[in-house]
Every structure is written in C-alpha cells, then in structure tokens.
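Last lecture ended with a question: if I hand you only a sequence, what can you say about the shape of the protein? Today we answer it with a concrete record. The protein is Antitoxin. Below, first the input exactly as provided, then the predicted structure, then a couple of comments.
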Amino acid sequence: MDVINMHEAKTHLSRLVERAAKGEPFIIAKAGVPLVKVNALTAPDPIKQKRLGFMSGQAVIPADFDSMAQASIEALFFGEN
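The predicted structure:
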C-alpha cells in the first residue's frame, strides 16, 4: 500500500481519489507519520421507491369534482343573487 505525504496528496487529490475509487487504497502521512487510510466506499444500492401513483386505487374522486360546491363558491365571489 502506498504512503503519500500530505503535500503530494493535496496536489494530486483528484488523481488519488480516482485510484482509491478503483480499489487501490493508500495512506496519507504527515512528516512521515501515517495519519489516515483512504479506501473506496462500498455503499449499498439505494432503495428504489415508486413515488408517482403510490396511492393508486386508494382514493376515489367523485365524477362531479370540478363542479362541487360551485353555487357556494360563486356566491362568495359574486354575492348572492
């Protein structure tokens, strides 16, 4: 496993991160003293959730939904006739 000094790690961070992501861990040292070990993360695949239509079939919309309470809404806007 490679030991890389702090200055070199700062200078070549992108290259080193790519190496670690490909499975090549390395150690970062300061003044020759090992400080940290850099490894690739092995995260589990995120749970794929179905968002659109998740309540399909659980709610009923009445056929007259667009005209429900139309008379009372018109009365609020235009006043009672």
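Comments.
1. The domain at 2-38 is CATH 3.40.1620.10 (YefM-like fold).
2. The mean pLDDT is 88.
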